[in-house]
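Hi everyone, sorry if this is the wrong subforum. Our group has a chain we'd like a structural model of before ordering constructs, and none of us has done structure prediction before. Sequence below.
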Amino acid sequence: MMDFARWFSMIVAAPVRRPATSFTWLRHVGGIGLIPLAILDASIVPTFGSLDLFTAWLAARTPGIWYYYGFMSTVGAVIGAWMMFRMGKKMGEKWMEKKIGHKRFQQVGDAIHHRSFGAIFVSCIAPPPFPTSWFFVGAGTFYMGQKKFLAAVLLGRSLRYGLLTWVAARYGRQFLRVLRHPARYIVICVIISVSLIVAVYLFSGKRLSAEIPEQGEGSLLPKEP
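Answer:
Right subforum, don't worry. Here is the predicted structure as tokens:
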């Protein structure tokens, strides 16, 4: 009895040594931690695909609630996108052009002007290093409708994180092995995303080509009265 008591006291008193990693922190915080990370991911601060990685990792570890992790990442992503949208509306075209350069500024503006919903949707499913955050800023800068913008973000991000968490939960250990080899993960994401991007752009381009008349020079989108 004394030996058992001594052993138990040693176990309780012994410090628990765990590596201070992001994975350890996220494992303790759970899905709630995905919200601030998703907000940061939507900003102009680069996160290098960490949200995808952490979301998939949590879903693979707890496959029974994979939809919860997809939902939390989507909620944070929509909040972050809305914040960038508001920032773009407030800062205006000159600020955005100064930050990303004239050529990229024109490319983002043309995409939003001609494809609108499709441009934002594609930016939401495209893998890093696609400049998704600048499309969010551009949507506000060029006065895209807020409801249409939020609908595109919600659809794109829910599809992205819903599919990601479902695959991670379904394949579990196999998916974790893929995450241990980022090169394979990136190649798979690029192939899927490029296919979706081409399909969306071809569809939206054909549909809108007959609807949008030729525009003169000047601001890419008319401002709200």
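For your construct planning: The chain has one domain: 30-208. The radius of gyration is 22 Å.
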